[in-house]
Write a structure and sequence with these properties.
single chain; 2 domains; two-stranded antiparallel sheet; 2 strands; about 10% strand
């Protein structure tokens, strides 16, 4: 997302360590394997501003998604009525049963 936002602003960026996020095993977790965004020093301040705006947009979108959060059936993904443990589409229930 950040690379695309920077590219749209005409800033060439390279993501260092991008593939390490999916690595499993002996690699340490955290800062040593976190991806880093590299841009030309002359464009660093502009890149920071673009990244801040992109993060603010993403944060507000996530807040909106959380406020619209609904309960969905784990079997068929249908929207379930608030407080009703049984799916109106397939009959699956959170309460379990003999099935």
């Amino acid at each position: 997302m950040i690379r695309i936002a920077l590219a749209e602003a005409g800033i060439e960026a390279q993501i260092e360590g991008e593939l390490l996020q999916g690595a499993v095993g002996d690699l340490p977790i955290g800062w040593p394997t976190a991806p880093r965004i590299l841009v030309a020093e002359s464009q660093a301040e502009t890149a920071r501003q673009i990244i801040e705006r992109a993060e603010e947009r993403q944060g507000s979108e996530q807040e909106a998604d959380e406020s619209r959060e609904t309960t969905r059936c784990l079997a068929c993904d249908a929207v379930m009525v608030e407080g009703d443990p049984k799916c109106p589409r397939c009959g699956w229930s959170y309460e379990g049963g003999d099935e």
